[in-house]
Amino acid sequence: PQAKLIFSMSLLLGTTITISSNHWMMAWTGLEVNTLAILPLISKSHHPRAIEASTKYFLIQATASTLLLFSSASNAWFTGQWDITQLTHPVSCTLLTTAISMKLGLVPFHFWFPEILQGSSLMTSLLLATIMKFPPTILLLLTSPSLNPTLLSVMAIASAALGGWMGLNQTQIRKIMAFSSISHLGWMIIILIYSPKLTLITFYIYSLTTAAIFFTLNSTNTLKLSTLMSMWSKIPTLAAALMLTLLSLAGLPPLTGFLPKWLIIQELTKQELTTMATTIALLSLLGLFFYLRLAYCATITLPPNSTNHMKQWHTNKSIDMLTSILITLSTMLLPLSPTILTIP
Description:
The chain is mainly alpha-helical. The protein has helices spanning 2-20, 24-43, 48-79, 90-104, 112-119, 122-129, 134-143, 149-166, 173-190, 196-220, 225-228, 231-234, 236-250, 258-270, 274-299, 321-332, 337-341. It has 2 domains: 1-110, no CATH class; 148-343, no CATH class.
C-alpha cells in the first residue's frame, strides 16, 4: 500500500508540475516523473505481457521526452527563449508536434498504445488512456498558436480514420478502448488551433465516459467480448448502463458524448472548413460500428452453451457509488451544456 501511494502521489505530482510550469525544463521533468511513476503500476502483475508493456512504454516515452527536450533546446538556441509559450522556430515546432504525438499515441506514432493497454490491468489502462494524456495535451494547448495547422489536421483525420478502422475486428475490450482513444484524440487535435477550450471540454468528457466504462468492466472483471456476453444474465442493470455509456462515447444524442462532437463540427463550419468537418464526422461512423457491437454483446446477446471461457458465477452484485456517479454524468450531462459552455 505504501508503494502504491507513493506511485500515485508521484503521478499527481508529475502532472501538476507539467501543467503549471512555464519553463521547458520543468515541463520535461514533470513528464519524466509521470513516466517513472506509471511503470511500476503497469508491471505490478509480474505477467510477461505486463513486463513487455512496461518496457515498451518506457522506451517510447523516453524517446518522446528526448525529442521534446531537443525541440525546446533548439528553440532556445535560435530564439534565446525557454518559455513554453514562446516556441516560434518552425523546426522546433515540428519536432515538438512529433514528440507530443508519440506521447499521446497519435497516428502515425500509435502502434505502441493498443499493445500496452492490452498488457496492463483495467485500472492501469484507465490511467494510461486519461491522466497520462493530460500533460502532453496541455503542452499542445500552450504552444497551439505556433503549431502547423495542416500537419495537425492531417494527423487528426488519420487518427480518426485508423482508430475507427482498426477497432472493427478486435475482440479484446482493452484494445477496442485503445483504438477508441486514438479516434477521440483525432477529434481533440483537429480543433486545437481554432478553439483550445473545445479541446479541453472534449478531453474532459472523453475521460469521464472512459472512466465509467472501465469501472463497469472492472466491477464485472470483463476483458473480452465473450465474457461481456454473460453480463446481462448476471447484472442486467449494469449491462444496460454500460450500453448507454458506450453509446455516449460513440457520440449519439441525447447523451453527453454528443456535446463535444456537435460543438467541434459547429466550430469547423464557422471556420469554413466544411470538408474537414464532413470527413471527420463520416469517419466517426466507423467507431460507432464497434461501439454498437459492444453494446449489442452487453445487452442483447446471450452466451451460447459451448463457451470456451471460465464461467464467473460468484460475482459482486452491488454497484459502487463512484461507478454510478460516473455512468450518470457520462450519459445525462447534455442538458447542462449551456452551463458548461459559459465557464470561462
